[in-house]
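Minutes, methods subgroup
Present: GH (chair), OT, SY

1. OT presented the first of two proteins processed in the latest run. Sequence and C-alpha cells recorded below as shown on screen.
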Amino acid sequence: MKLQKCNVCMHQFGWKKTYKSVFFKGWEMQCSKCETHYVLDLRSKWIFYFTPSLVIIALNNLFSFDFYITLFGTFFSLILISFLFPYVMKFSPDI
C-alpha cells in the first residue's frame, strides 16, 4: 500500500494531509507543489461508509456474550481502520 501521488507533478501526498482531508476537510485536498485540486472519488467514499459498519456488525456477532469486550473491540478496530484509511482512499483531480 502506498499513498497517492499527484497526477500532474508526481509529488506524493503525506499521510497527515490525506488523513485530515478525509476526516476534517470535506474530502478535498490540494497538492502543495502544483496546487492541483483533488476530491475523494466515489469508490473511496463507499469504502469510508461501509467498512466501519461491516466491522461493527461482525464484532457484535462475534462477541455478543459480553458487552464490554464488544465495546472495546469495536472501538479499537475502528481506530485501527481509521489510521489505515489514507492508504486506501484515492483522490481524483477536480475538473
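2. SY then presented the second protein from the same run.
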Amino acid sequence: MEALQQTLYCCKKCWRRNNVLKVISTTLFFIFVFAFVSESFIDIADARARSGGRSYSRPMKTSPTKQTTAPASRTSTTQRGSSSFMRGLGGGLLGGFLGSMLFGGMGHAMGGGIGGSGIGLFEIILIGGLLYFLYRHFSRKKSSSMSHSTPGSFGPGGAHARPTPPVPPTPSRHEGPMPGGSPVGIDAPPPDTVSDALNMIRMSDQSFDEEKFKEFAQDVFFKVQAGWMRRDISTIEHLLGPELSAEYMKHFQEMKQKGQINRLENIAVRKVEIEDAGVSKNEEYLTIFFTANLLDYTLDESTDTVIEGSRTEPVKFAEKWTFARPAGSSDWKLSGIVD
C-alpha cells in the first residue's frame, strides 16, 4: 500500500512538472511565431505630416556589367536561402506543435523527453530557433542603422516663418561648349562629386554664387513657413515645384476642414549649407541642409487650445531642401524636402 502511494505521488509530481514544461514550451512557441510573422511582414515607418515633393540623386559612375551582376546574383541567392530556411523552420515548429496537441503532450509527441525530464526534441528545436531569430533580428537592425540613408536622395518636408525672399541672382547662361568641348546640359558627363556639379553650374551660369544662393534659399525657407501657417498656397506657389505645390494645397485643405492651425514661431536657423548638387541633360539641382530651433505647435481654430506640441518648449529639427531648375532656365523652384 505504501509503495502504491509513493508511485501515485511520483506520477502526480511528474504530471505537474510536465504540465509546467508544456505551458513554458507553448508560450515560447507563440512568442517565436509572433516574432517571425512580425519580422516578415511589418515594416515600421516614420514620416512627418509636412513631407512631400520629388527625389533627386546625383548619377553614379557605372561599373562594367561583368563586375556588377555576379555580386547581385550572390546577394539574391543568399536572401532567398535565408528566407526559405526561416519558412522551413517556422513550418517545422508549427507541425511539431500541432503533432504534440494531437498526440497528447509534447513529451510524448517528441519521443518522451531527454532522460524522462519532459524536455524533448521539440523544445530544443524551439529554443534554438528562437535564439537564431534573435541573432538575425539584432544583426539586421545594427546593419540597417549603419547604412541609414544616402546623401544624394531627398523627399518631402516641412514649413516654418518670415517675409519676402529676394529674387535669386539672374543668371547669365551661355550655350557654348564647356572647356573640353562638351556643351553644358547636352553631352556633358554626369558629375562625380558635389564640387564637380557646382563647377558645371558655374560654367553654364556665370552669375551663380554659392553664398548668394544660400541667402536666397534661407529667405525661401522663411517665406514657405509663413505660407504654411496661413494655410495659403497662393503666397508660395510660385516658389514651389508642381509636386510639392499640389501636396501642400491638399494638406492646407485638410487642416482647414479639421479647423487646425500649425504655428511655427521664434525660428532660429543655426546652419545653412549646400549638401548636394547635380546636373543632368535637362535639369540642375541643389540641396540645402538646414538646422534650426523653433516653437512648433498645433491649435484648435475654434478654441485656440493647443492640441499638439508646446507654446513654450522649442524643438530642434534638421531638413534638406532641394531646389531644381530646367537646364537653360534661371527659375529655381523648391521641389522637395526631407528631414
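Chair's summary of item 2: The two ends are 79 Å apart (CA to CA).
Next meeting: continue with the remaining queue.
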